[in-house]
Specification:
This protein has 466 residues and is mostly helical. The chain is built from 24 helices and 2 strands. Helix content is 58%, strand content 1%. The chain has a two-stranded antiparallel sheet with strand order 1-2. Helix 8 packs parallel to helix 11 and helix 16 runs parallel beside helix 18. The chain is elongated and about 75 Å long. InterPro entries: ARM-type_fold.
């Protein structure tokens, strides 16, 4: 096995990992320097177990850097991704689209809820025995090497090098070099990572540098030639700044459409080629999702930009051929349930939806989440003051039915519940077409006219969800 300078000078028996003394770490490191896949699995399983950082992890970083300099291709890319992870940027979690929900795993190291972001903070945290901060400092010692690799011919290596260079304490000059990748990087997958990494960088640098990063992301969001990159930049801006986004809802919807079309075309082209015969990338998003995000992912990422979210969802609801309506309704439900704001236009848009098979329950869920917010629109539908009693009777009739929760929810909504009637009735008024069985009839004369309509819809809903 290759010799790593200084490896035998460390008292590994005095250090520990997840399973005890770190006496086996030297062999793991030698294996990594020779491209041994088992050594990587052993190291991650013990020395970086479930993301934990031990004293042996910190001690291993200089030798991981030596190993990364010795190997090439995929082995180098995997080591760079590991170093990025140890330095505070998990290259795998950062590129999963599910994490766009507001929680890319940004391993900003903490000590009693103090987030070290600047060099002095990292040093102070490391001096207090914070192993995470110590690892971040150790990884940052390899930054000159990482920056040289930003022009490597291997896209995987460039991806890992960027994330490793972005980890740990950052200086303005380093950030400037990272920003240049927006101009110089041509690979779509690496660009996804570059944009996301720059968003994380914006959260970890002083205000003056942060402003520069956000300005460049704004330029990318409006002027980049690739719609997928534009969309990524917009999402990072939304996550990192409360300032208004540089595009309106109509433009954002158009960008989403173009990004999805681009991602699908690229995925098809690559499936027909042999360019990926050597296996998947070590970092970067999956082919079928690259640069593309679903409506609920985009909406959640917009976070506190409530007005922008509502306007976008109204727009998407008017594009039934472009988007899965259930996904849009899910995003709308999350918005009205979790964020304060004027949701009237969104409520009106949902209530005005034409019949669309399979979305009745989603519409009901939205109106339930809207609750009393929907009451102004429900006023014209329901004027009876007995809705609580009538819906309570409905619950008793459905007490042995698995959809009793639906009736409970509608009862709790009060007068606003009647707003669900038109949408549910439109969706479910053809039970034979949907292969449904009729539910027991509740006599309409027991309730008001509007409530009878509501109860009929709930009965149909019960049949649908059996």
């Amino acid at each position: 096995m290759p010799d790593l300078s200084g490896l035998d000078e460390i008292d590994w028996a005095a250090l520990h990992h997840a399973y005890g003394p770190a006496t086996d770490v030297p062999d793991m490191l030698r294996g990594l320097a020779s491209g041994d896949a088992k050594a990587m699995a052993d190291f991650v399983g013990a020395v970086h177990h479930q993301g934990d950082v031990y004293d042996s992890t910190v001690a291993a970083v200089p030798f991981l850097l030596q190993a990364a300099e010795r190997v090439e291709g995929r082995d180098r890319a995997e080591l760079l991704s590991l170093l990025a992870d140890l330095g505070g940027v998990d290259s795998y979690e950062l590129t999963l689209l599910n994490d766009i929900h507001g929680a890319y795993f940004e391993w900003v190291f903490t000590d009693n809820n103090v987030h070290p972001r600047y060099p002095d903070d990292y040093a102070e945290a490391a001096a207090r025995g914070d192993q995470d901060a110590g690892a971040a400092l150790a990884v940052s010692a390899g930054r000159p090497f990482f920056l040289r690799l930003l022009d490597d011919p291997d896209a995987d290596v460039r991806c890992g090098a960027f994330l490793a260079a972005a980890s740990g304490p950052l200086e303005a000059a380093t950030v400037d070099t990272l920003l240049e990748r927006l101009r110089d990087e041509a690979n779509a997958e690496v660009l996804d990572v570059v944009v996301t990494g720059l968003g994380i960088t914006a959260a970890r640098v002083p205000a003056t540098v942060r402003t520069t990063v956000l300005e460049r992301l704004a330029e990318t969001a409006t002027a980049h030639s690739r719609p997928g990159v534009q969309l990524r930049a917009l999402m990072e801006l939304a996550r990192r700044s409360s300032d208004p986004l540089p595009v309106d809802a109509e433009t954002l919807a158009a960008t989403m459409r173009r990004a999805r079309a681009e991602a699908r075309a690229e995925a098809r082209a690559e499936r027909l080629s042999s360019a990926r015969a050597d296996g998947p990338r070590t970092c970067g998003v999956g082919d079928e999702w690259r640069g593309s995000m679903s409506p609920d992912e985009v909406s959640l990422t917009l976070g506190d930009h409530v007005g922008h979210r509502a306007a976008l969802l109204v727009r998407l609801l008017h594009e039934p051929d472009e988007w899965d309506r259930a996904s849009v309704l899910s995003a709308a439900t999350d918005l009205v349930a979790g964020w304060r704001g004027d949701h009237r236009s969104l409520i009106e848009a949902v209530e005005a939806l034409p019949t669309a098979s399979g979305t009745g329950a989603d519409t009901a869920g939205f109106l339930e989440a809207a609750g009393q917010i929907a009451e102004p629109e429900a006023g014209a539908v329901s004027s009876s003051d007995t809705e609580g009693q009538d819906l309570h009777a409905l619950v008793e009739d459905f007490e042995d039915h698995p959809t009793v929760e639906v009736a409970h929810a509608l009862r709790d909504m009060g007068p606003a519940a009647a707003a669900a009637a038109p949408a549910l009735r439109r969706e479910l008024d053809e039970p034979r077409r949907h292969g449904l069985r009729a539910e027991e009839t509740i006599e309409p004369d027991l309730v008001g006219e509007d409530e009878a309509l509501l109860l009929a819809c709930v009965e149909a809903l019960a049949a649908v969800t059996r």
